[in-house]
Amino acid sequence: MTDRGASARPLPDDRPAHPDPILALNRMGSFDWDLDKGLFHMDAQAHEVFDLRPEEYDGRAESLAARVPRAEGSHLDALVARAIKDGSENYGTYFRLRRRDGSLRWTHTQGYIRRDATGRPYRIVGIVRDATAELGEIEERRDRAARHAARRRRTDVVRTATAALAHARTVDDVIDVLRDTDGLTRLGATSLVMGLVEAGHIRLVADGPENSFVPGTRVTRIDEPYPMSEAVRTLSPRFIESPEEFAERYPVLWPHLAGLRITSAAYLPLIAQARPIGAMGLLYSDRRGFSPEDRDVLVALGSAIAQSLQRAVLYEREMDLAAGLQQAMLPRTIPSVPGCDVAVRYRAAGAGGTVGRGIGGDWYDLIPLPGSRVGAVIGDVQGHDTHAAAVMGQLRIVLRAYAAEGHPPATVMARASAFLHELDTDRFATCLYAEADLATGVVQVVRAGHIDPLVRHGDGTCRRVPVEGGLPLGLSAEFGCLAYPVGTLELDPGCTLLLCTDGLVERPGTDLGEGTRALAAAVTAGPEDVRDLADLLIDTAGRRGGDDDVALLLLRRRAPETARTGGRLRQHVAPGDPEALTEARRMVRTAARAWGAGDRDDEIELVADELITNALMHTEGSAVVTARALTGPGRLRVEVEDSSSALPRRRDAGDRGVSGRGLLLVEALADAWGVEARGGGKCVWSEFAPGRDG
């Protein structure tokens, strides 16, 4: 090529008559080319550059052809001809010449063209010099630059792949990073395979491009003669540098790969915490062999992939464990409660980017209670992990137990808060407990840091019902504030009570009030059926996304099957007051006849008398007798409350005993009976269905 660094000025006319010493000091030789006569004069240093003895050279340019290879000579001739034609004053280039021993060396020449007054060239004077050292330095710099660029590219491969793998959360995510076109391009491979170690086998989990795996290798034993198995067995990579080597080392596998035009391959063990979790094969169709640097990069890449794959495996295991735990903690079925239609839904948050996402502490529950009552619970334990799910499950159980024992709503919430405070956890929970009497429509609501309930009326309109609340569960006990106010609302027939966690109302960029109003609008415009409405709301939450779970409970009160007169009667009976005892018996008999259970009034009165007598005999206080009409004609419940927490028990009366048969009598005559805790005391109840013969 032309030497662009050469001076464009011609040699001066007054140059030294004998420049040889000056040029020799710079290891240069000179020449003087008479274009008209064809003579090409060279000094002694130039002869040395061309490796010619003076007697071997006749002074003509053509005679130098023996030292200049044909291709190089053609290049020089073309260069000089172009410079003369273009009117250039000088030219310069590097070329190779052949020395006496046949070896080639690089040479540099610079020529200055002399022209007469008409511009005709008649003479070229110039220099030649040995450029081997110079070009060697240039070549070395180029080699260093090439090695540096290659090293940077290899580093970029590891860095880029590691950065992409950092966002992978599942095994499929890792596979997608490696299998897509960009991933293969970064790795420089034509195709890849990846397998995971499972019970002494390697199960293929990825191939790229799609379906490029070898048939019959979907699941292989670790002791089989395959390169991936060998990498796992030995915990060391296997580099295959040519098709011939592949065919020789793995004759079973190679026939299936021959059609893919594979020229080399690298099989890497995926090792995490000193044990193999899998292996990966990278197959190439455009290279042969692996330099030490290539091998180091691939080993480092395999380590990065193994770490990412291990994180993904552990993440999936935790997700499976947490999902199973949460499903076990949530109610498997929702009981059918007469007098209402119920729908519940749960939606886990998206994966988000944090281990454990999709698992949380949101829960719901429906608790059938004696009579026409039902308890509805919605709650949210702080956090999105297995610990939150475990705390949620414990809270759900204790809330159900406290409610089933007959405690009033405020006591249920206070005891649940104390329970959470006593657990070895730093979590707190918000909760809302609503106890509805489906016969009267009265709903008592207790709120512990949770969002307010919503009510959809019969005309379709929906509104938030403000309820005074207390601190979240676990915090109220810590701050010594266990009193929870009770709010009351009425649920008319056809109205729907909506309880949800904040994941249903929270929206990015909006406050909670705006989200609640949007939810109320969606409920108003939604279908009347609670199941269809629940599906609509949960689907809307799913499309909106978000980083929080959603729990939803809808309870719609149906119209009473029959009209009620009275509904509930209550009588206080003090110890030693026979008149009050008589009035209580009369009240129970009257209620039975008034509510359609007259065919069993004797049985009902006898059971009530037995329960009242037991309460007065075995406790030191008074008793409260309550008669309740249940759903359905003729259904009746009798409750006797006292201040003792001691539970009644059957006694063996003996052959001649006159006491100890009370509970046997109650069990024989009543359709159902039981005991509920009531504050500092208890309630013994019995229920009767119509139409039973006495």
Description:
It is built from 17 helices and 27 strands. The strands form 5 sheets. A 6-stranded antiparallel sheet has the order 8-7-6-11-10-9, with helices on both faces. Strands 13, 14, 15, 16, 19 and 20 form a 6-stranded mixed sheet that branches. Strands 2-1-5-4-3 form a 5-stranded antiparallel sheet, with helices on both faces. A hairpin with a 2-residue loop joins strand 26 (672-678) and strand 27 (681-688). Helix 5 (171-179) packs across helix 6 (181-187) and helix 16 (601-618) runs antiparallel to helix 17. The longest helix has 38 residues, at 292-329. Mean pLDDT is 81; it is low at 1-12, 14-18, 351-357, 562-566 and 655-659.
Distance between the termini: 122 Å
Widest sheet: strand ordering: 8-7-6-11-10-9
Low-confidence stretches: 1-12, 14-18, 351-357, 562-566, 655-659
User: What is the gyration radius calculated from CA atoms?
Assistant: 48 Å
**Strands, total number:** 27
User: Which term fits the overall shape?
Assistant: rod-shaped
Strand content: 25-35%
Task: Compute the average pLDDT.
Answer: 81
- The number of helical segments is 17
- Class of secondary structure makeup: alpha+beta
- Largest sheet entry: 6 strands, antiparallel
Helix content: 25-40%
Compact summary:
The chain has 694 residues and is an alpha+beta fold.
Tag the structure with descriptive keywords:
rod-shaped; alpha+beta; 6-stranded mixed β-sheet; disordered N terminus; 6-stranded antiparallel β-sheet; 694 residues; 17 helices
Lay out the secondary structure:
Layout lengths: L19 H6 L2 E7 L4 E4 L1 H6 L20 H17 L3 E9 L5 E12 L5 E10 L1 H35 L4 H9 L1 H7 L3 E8 L2 E8 L10 E3 L5 H8 L3 E3 L2 H7 L4 H4 L6 E9 L2 E10 L7 H38 L10 E8 L13 E8 L4 E9 L4 H19 L4 H14 L6 E9 L4 E7 L5 E3 L5 E3 L4 E2 L16 E4 L5 E5 L11 H14 L4 H15 L5 E8 L10 E6 L4 H17 L6 H18 L4 E7 L6 E7 L19 H8 L2 E7 L2 E8 L6
Helix pairs in contact: 4-10, 5-6, 10-11, 11-12, 15-16, 16-17
